[in-house]
Backbone:
């Protein structure tokens, strides 16, 4: 490896490390916020039934499609793809996005909390 390639590699690694560390902090923050969600939802399939559906792998899934959970007719018919944008809209005010949803959760007011929990759910969906 010549000197230029070595310098570029070193620079890339130096720049990537803080970014990956910051991403890990966001995921950790999301895990803390998810504790509110965990009263009703799981993220791992350990056989425990809660009042809400399992959210492991939710990012990338269509709303109302997890087998084994009985969704409200409104959620089942919504056809919403769970991506960052739609999840943010839902977490802001669930019944505004899906009138007739079963959840009584009022939403997360803080955009930073929503972003963190969505990042946490994305990380769970990728693993």
Residues:
């Amino acid at each position: 490896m010549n000197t230029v390639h070595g310098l570029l590699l070193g620079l890339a690694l130096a720049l990537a490390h803080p970014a990956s560390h910051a991403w890990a902090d966001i995921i950790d923050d999301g895990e803390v916020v998810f504790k509110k969600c965990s009263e009703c939802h799981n993220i791992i399939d350990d056989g425990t039934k809660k009042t809400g559906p399992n959210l492991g792998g939710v990012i990338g899934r269509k709303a109302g499609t997890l087998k084994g959970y009985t969704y409200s007719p409104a959620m089942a018919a919504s056809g919403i793809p769970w991506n960052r944008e739609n999840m943010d809209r839902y977490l802001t005010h669930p019944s505004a996005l899906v009138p007739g949803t079963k959840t009584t959760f009022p939403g997360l007011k803080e955009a930073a909390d929503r972003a963190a929990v969505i990042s946490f759910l994305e990380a769970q969906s990728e693993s």
The first helix runs from residue 3 to 37. The helical segments are 3-37, 73-78, 84-92, 94-97, 111-126.
